[in-house]
Design a protein that fits this description.
By secondary structure, this protein is of the alpha/beta class. It has 14 helices and 14 strands. The longest helix is centred in the middle third of the chain and has 30 residues. α7 links the parallel β5 and β6. The strands form 3 sheets. Strands 1-7-6-5-4-2-3 form a 7-stranded mixed sheet, sandwiched between helices. The structure holds pyridoxal-5'-phosphate. The site of pyridoxal-5'-phosphate has 14 residues, from α2.
């Protein structure tokens, strides 16, 4: 060892654990997930331009964690690199959103498409650029993507990237974790994590990670970027991260099982509200309900677990889901602004009325968190679109029945709060049969 910035034994120990979990050749930890993104972009650019005489671009999904999309756009603009957008394979709106959310989404999408903002698959986007003589220095994938849980078939994306001679494919697997999938085994070049989330799992560290499939020139440039850019992780945070990863498998399995149960129970709850009141309240978005995502998940032996169905293999689909409410709050006005304000108010009251779920920004920890994403993302929005009624849920380790009951009481509480508002037609709101 010579100096702790490029080489620290606590950091190295955590890197080796994650390298092995992802089945990679090496791992580098960073001071945050965003620092890992920056190093991946910079490392790929440096390595790519050395061997590429043509113009290069970054292929980015239309839906990804909003700060990541922001950063990719900003980074590319400052380096005169184009961003080419593509749509994920299964966008969340495939689940069907309500007409008013659809209306706004359509307006924005139409505007974006006029300015070339996706509306095309990754393969099509890459082919079009290839025909123009351009090369993708980076294909960025986030699957499942925060907060609608869109997914990309990584194997197919890698095939499309190779066919078009893309330089580097990087998968942000923060939400999936190495327990659910290993993108490197599907051919990706790099895996990125916001280690702040599941890998640490205790909500007390901010950290990022990159894992590489091979130790090539890109990797040399990535580690060079970290060494001289200085976005390294502190030794104590690395120690905490190592502690967190010891329980990663147990946490992800438990949280996935609770999330699947909750997703189905919440669907039943929404169905019951519709049966009782004729009101279509919303939709549950969960990757485990989408066959294309489930198909990509690693199979685990269940020998050590109690199963009633006698199966020996099982897949897990993560602890993240969203409850996307429609504009169902009774119409005294048709004015779009009022309808949006009302739905936003309902969601905020819902989130803050929970007693077990904490209303806070982050995900992947031991405790369950809930958050109204529009309130967080849209104020500074550049181009992502998050539905007005979307509540993001990060499922923790608590009792699943208590988690469900808490959400139900928050729903009825938020509705009662709406009843008193003068823009709301109280008679048209669903009434609890349980109270
Ligand atoms: N990628 C995803 C999917 C995220 O959810 C986040 C943060 O929420 C990041 C990247 C950024 O990570 P960090 O906050 O550790 O910089």
């Amino acid at each position: 060892m010579c100096y702790a910035r490029p080489d620290n034994p606590s950091v190295r120990a955590a890197e080796e654990t994650l390298r092995d979990l992802e089945g990679g050749a090496d791992c580098a930890l960073f001071s945050s997930g965003m620092a890992a993104l920056n190093a991946a972009l910079e490392g790929a650019r440096r390595a790519c331009v050395e061997t590429t005489p043509t113009r290069v671009f970054v292929a980015a999904p239309t839906c990804a964690y909003f700060a990541v999309r922001f950063r990719i756009v900003e980074w590319c603009a400052s380096r005169n690199v184009e961003v080419v957008s593509y749509d994920p394979d299964v966008p969340f709106n495939a689940h069907g959103l309500d007409p008013s959310t659809e209306e706004v989404r359509e307006e924005r999408e139409a505007k974006r498409r006029r300015s070339g903002y996706a509306g095309k698959s990754l393969r099509t986007a890459l082919r079009e650029q290839r025909e123009l003589g351009r090369r993708a220095m980076m294909v960025w994938i986030e699957s499942p993507a925060n907060p609608g849980w869109d997914h990309v078939d990584i194997q197919r994306a890698v095939d499309a990237a190779r066919d078009c001679d893309a330089f580097c494919v990087c998968v942000d697997a923060t939400v999936a974790t190495p327990i659910i999938m290993n993108p490197l085994a599907m051919g990706a070049d790099l895996v990125m994590h916001s280690a702040t989330k599941y890998l640490n799992g205790h909500g007390d560290v901010v950290a990022g990670a990159l894992v590489t499939r091979v130790e090539d020139e890109t990797w040399r440039c990535v580690t060079h970027e970290r060494k001289l850019g200085g976005a390294t992780l502190g030794a104590f945070d690395a120690y905490l991260l190592s502690r967190g990863m010891r329980t990663l498998e147990l946490r992800v399995k438990r949280q996935s099982a609770t999330a699947l149960w909750l997703a189905n129970a919440l669907k039943d709850f929404i169905d019951k509200v519709r049966e009782d009141s004729g009101v279509e309240a919303g939709v549950v978005l969960y990757p485990g309900l989408v066959p294309g995502f489930v198909k990509q998940c690693k199979e685990h032996d269940v020998e050590d677990e109690c199963t009633s169905d006698g199966s020996t293999k099982r897949t897990y689909h993560g602890g993240m889901m969203s409850l996307c409410f429609y504009d169902f709050l009774g119409l005294k006005t048709d004015e779009k602004k009022v309808r949006v304000e009302r739905l936003v108010a309902f969601c905020r009251t819902f989130a803050t009325s929970c007693k077990i779920w904490t209303c806070a920004t982050s995900l992947g920890g031991f405790e369950s968190l809930i958050e109204h994403r529009y309130s967080v993302e849209e104020p500074g929005s550049m181009d992502p679109f998050v539905p007005f009624g979307l509540l993001r849920l990060s499922v923790g380790l608590e009792n699943r029945r208590e988690l469900l009951e808490d959400l139900k009481q928050a729903f009825w509480h938020a509705l009662d709060d709406m009843r008193g508002r003068d823009t709301v037609n109280a008679d048209s709101l669903p009434k609890s049969q349980e109270q």
